[in-house]
Amino acid sequence: MEYDLVKRADDLAKYNQRFCLSPEQWIGCKVVLEGEWQSVRFQPDQRGNVPKERGLYAFVLRPAISGIFELGYLMYLGQTGHGSARTLHDRFGDYLQPSKVRKRTHIARMMEKWQDYLVFYFIKLKDATNLKALEAGLNDALIPPFVTSDYSIQIRAAVRAFQ
What is the pTM of this model? Predict the structure, then answer.
């Protein structure tokens, strides 16, 4: 009985996640996007609602608590289509395949813990020439905890120092 607290603390610790919430980074963000973000629950039956176009995407963790205000934690932000014909639809499908997810241990950890609570946000972008710059700009500003390298050179080393 006296060790229940230790067990509970250990159980909670596996869900502990570090976030960097920097107003300076938000203010310095110069990214301008044309279009609107859309979202679907990250479930296999939602793949048909994800367009076969290039763009940016994000995984947001949404706790399933009825009657609470809108709450979400940005976990990952990426792009698809830079240097390839891969689409948002393709990328959504990649994340549904354990064999592909396992190759990226940080993403595998995110999926293992919270897959049933993830929402897939996306924005279609007609001009795919600057997808990497848009991705880096947003990642620099928002510093999602499961992004490991898709930052600008100026931010990458600083972020790695606390990961």
Answer: 0.92
